[in-house]
């Protein structure tokens, strides 16, 4: 049992170190995937388009760097900026969303990449604290299981 807990502890430790070391690559990869999701965005309910809409509605953002990122997409030439960027769903017409100057007043202007990374970094202290607590419980379990093993081994000869 101690060996199993030690193995799990080492796997979690390695994952945390790798995540910390490669955090810039993770950000770059996320940004490129978000750009790709905007490029392939469509009206049909595929998972990537739904994810973009959810991020934009939840974080009150639009595009990757700002709302003008949508102007370089095929979706913009057909329908303009998506409704998920609108500050108010009632005050957002399709004509307004096709005109970047009018859309600037009716959509969120901040980009989603900065807000997503900011949100993730602000939650890192909570994740680190929970991970540290779990690691402490694992270490206590490892020590106690080693003590139990030693106790069983030492008392084996007294039973006879």
From TrEMBL:
Q: Which residues form a coiled coil?
A: none
Question: GO terms for CC?
Answer: plasma membrane
The keyword Zinc appears for this protein? no
| Bilayer disposition of the protein | Multi-pass membrane protein
Main subcellular location of this protein, as a coarse class: membrane
User: Superkingdom, according to UniProt?
Assistant: Eukaryota
Q: Identify the stretch annotated as signal peptide in this record.
A: 1-19
Protein location: Membrane
Q: Which UniProt keywords apply?
A: Glycoprotein, Membrane, Signal, Transmembrane, Transmembrane helix
Q: Does the keyword Zinc apply?
A: no
Protein task = May be involved in cell proliferation and cell motility.
Q: What is this protein called?
A: Tetraspanin-7
The source organism is Acanthisitta chloris (rifleman)
Q: What is the lineage of its organism?
A: Eukaryota, Metazoa, Chordata, Craniata, Vertebrata
């Amino acid at each position: 049992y101690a060996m199993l807990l030690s193995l799990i502890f080492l796997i979690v430790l390695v994952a945390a170190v790798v995540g910390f070391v490669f955090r810039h690559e993770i950000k770059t990869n996320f940004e490129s995937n978000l750009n790709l999701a905007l490029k392939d965005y469509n009206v049909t309910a595929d998972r990537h388009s739904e994810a973009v809409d959810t991020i934009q509605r939840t974080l009150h953002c639009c595009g990757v760097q700002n709302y003008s990122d949508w102007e370089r997409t095929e979706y913009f030439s057909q329908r303009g900026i998506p409704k998920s960027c609108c500050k108010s769903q009632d005050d957002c017409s399709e004509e307004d969303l096709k005109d970047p100057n009018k859309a600037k007043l009716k959509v969120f202007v901040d980009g989603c990449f900065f807000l997503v990374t900011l949100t993730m970094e602000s939650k890192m202290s909570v994740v680190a604290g929970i991970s540290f607590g779990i690691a402490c419980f694992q270490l206590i379990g490892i020590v106690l299981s080693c003590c139990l093993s030693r106790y069983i081994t030492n008392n084996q000869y007294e039973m006879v």
